TrEMBL record:
Its cofactor is pyridoxal 5'-phosphate. One of its GO terms (molecular function) is threonine deaminase activity. Keywords: Lyase, Pyridoxal phosphate. The lineage of its organism: Bacteria, Pseudomonadati, Pseudomonadota, Gammaproteobacteria, Pseudomonadales. This is Threonine dehydratase. It comes from Ectopseudomonas toyotomiensis.
Amino acid sequence: MSSIPFDELLQARQRIAGLVRQTPLEHSPSLSRLAGVPVWLKLESQQATGSFKLRGASNAVAQLDAEQKRLGVVTASTGNHGRALAYAASQQSVKAIVCLSELVPQNKVRAIRELGAEVVISGRSQDDAQLEALRIAREQGAAFIPPFDHPHVIAGQGSLGLEILEQCPDVCEVLVPLSGGGLFAGVALAIKAASPAIRTHGISMQLGAAMHASLQAGEPVEVEELPTLADSLGGGIGLDNRFTYSITRELCDQLHLLDEASIARGIRHAYREERLVVEGAAAVGIAALLHGLIEPRGPVVVVISGRNIDIDQHLRVLNGADA
């Protein structure tokens, strides 16, 4: 397994302590009644940029040398990583370029531009956007900071896992949205270092789940990126994946896929019962519990990964739509 030393997670947490928030862990009475065990929501939606991605981006930018900071940073994203990198770069006076596909919602595109980053729209998938970002990195000398498959990004996300362990020492099940695997890998590395008995659940959507397809194939594979309520979980994992595929394969106890109706139900539950506005990718843990996919042995922590949903889409879903 291409892993990340546990010390890197500890150092990342110290490095980004003044750059990100320690987010709250909130008890969910409604989900606890349903599951028959205490259920806690880890509210990464309360980060300054509205998602967990700020942890990894801040850790990566903080480790650039002076020349790299002068030349700037570039990335490809389904939206939240781009927003986080734009914010982290602006905090340290670093120029940022963010490459997005045509499938990224306009609210996320606007938010990235408002943070001062240059936005480049390229192709119909995150893979297309990444090819453009790599071209820019070669031609301009900018540091390429990928959205998930990078040790500094993974270590930054691992700080979330360390917080979970401190806030809920008796946790038995951790539910993590799974896409390219940066969040899952970081959290799982922290959780499993504390206790291999804690079960990790990776949760994704049925439409274009690249990590699931890759694990089924036994190697990283390409998948078609399809429109989904969980748009932040879209995109490939990279055929040359170095870290997140192997870490996920090693540390994921169960992987669950959800249809669009279940994800919509999760969004509605978050708003009506928890008073939370969440995007589809952040609702998958709640949806998995509502759908009965998890059989918890004890306390559950659900990672609520982000809130950056288009408000018109949110209203449609609240009124019963599944898209």
